[in-house]
């Protein structure tokens, strides 16, 4: 029986899976549990202490999924509704984290969506334009992250400026297109290092999407995205394109 285009593309896209040692898997699992615990804590905290911008009630817990304890400390000191006023660097960090929330959720939806529905890879060019499943994941991640990031920005910027739907969407696109792109470029860059160099060299293959190692690597990659997106957000705020938080 000849393979179908779908099975062929999936076969081409499936690289060798790394064999991770049990202690590393345990450590990575613990790190993910800590991040989820931080997200749950903040989700409860923003209910008890409502944010000035309602959308931040979703943004802050999502940022904990990649920022974990570091972002929790930042939230408690600068992001809480009862926190003192923040300076330019903290405001830009909050702006950048706001951008990252959409990217974090987009990566979760995109990666698990592709794993659950492999045909999505074919839709975005897997097997015809390229042969690597990782690239298909990146394409889907970017599309979902972009849509969610613009939505988060719309619900921040439209109420702040008193804009209607159309004007609010245009403003959101202007405010977040460059910052989301910068974030994803930084994130993809480090994930490429993990998946194409580090994991194969040390463990004989790539991390699968259902492995704790994949998502801990993604946490580091998201921080790289933050580093790349921070100066872009600072520039957008200085130009008045984006609102300082």
TrEMBL record:
Tell me yes or no: is Transmembrane among this UniProt entry's keywords: yes
Matching entries from Pfam families are given as: DUF4396 (PF14342)
Q: Is-annotated flag, keyword Transmembrane?
A: yes
Q: Which keywords does the record carry?
A: Membrane, Transmembrane, Transmembrane helix
Give the transmembrane region(s): 20-43, 55-76, 135-157, 214-237
**Which InterPro entries does the record match to this protein?**
DUF4396
Q: Which residues form the DUF4396 domain?
A: 89-242
Superkingdom of the source?
Bacteria
Its name, as the record gives it, is: DUF4396 domain-containing protein
- Give the originating organism: Curtobacterium pusillum
């Amino acid at each position: 029986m000849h393979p179908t285009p779908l099975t062929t593309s999936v076969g081409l896209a499936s690289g060798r899976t790394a064999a991770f040692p049990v202690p590393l898997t345990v450590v990575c699992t613990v790190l993910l549990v800590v991040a989820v615990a931080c997200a749950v804590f903040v989700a409860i905290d923003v209910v008890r202490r409502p944010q000035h911008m309602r959308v931040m009630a979703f943004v802050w817990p999502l940022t904990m999924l990649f920022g974990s304890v570091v972002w929790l400390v930042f939230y408690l000191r600068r992001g809480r509704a009862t926190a003192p006023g923040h300076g330019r660097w903290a405001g830009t960090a909050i702006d950048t984290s706001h951008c990252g929330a959409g990217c974090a959720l987009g990566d979760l939806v995109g990666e698990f969506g592709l794993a659950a529905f492999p045909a999505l890879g074919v839709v975005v060019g897997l097997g015809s334009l390229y042969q690597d499943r990782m690239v298909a994941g990146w394409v889907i991640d970017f599309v979902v992250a972009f849509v969610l990031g613009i939505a988060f920005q719309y619900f921040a910027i439209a109420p702040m400026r008193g804009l209607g739907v159309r004007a609010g969407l245009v403003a959101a696109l202007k405010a977040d297109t460059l910052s989301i792109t910068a974030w994803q470029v930084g994130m993809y860059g480090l994930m490429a290092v993990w998946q194409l160099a580090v994991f194969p060299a040390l463990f004989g293959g790539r991390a699968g999407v259902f492995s704790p190692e994949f998502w801990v690597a993604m946490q580091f990659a998201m921080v790289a995205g933050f580093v790349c997106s921070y100066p872009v957000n600072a520039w957008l705020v200085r130009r008045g394109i984006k609102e300082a938080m």
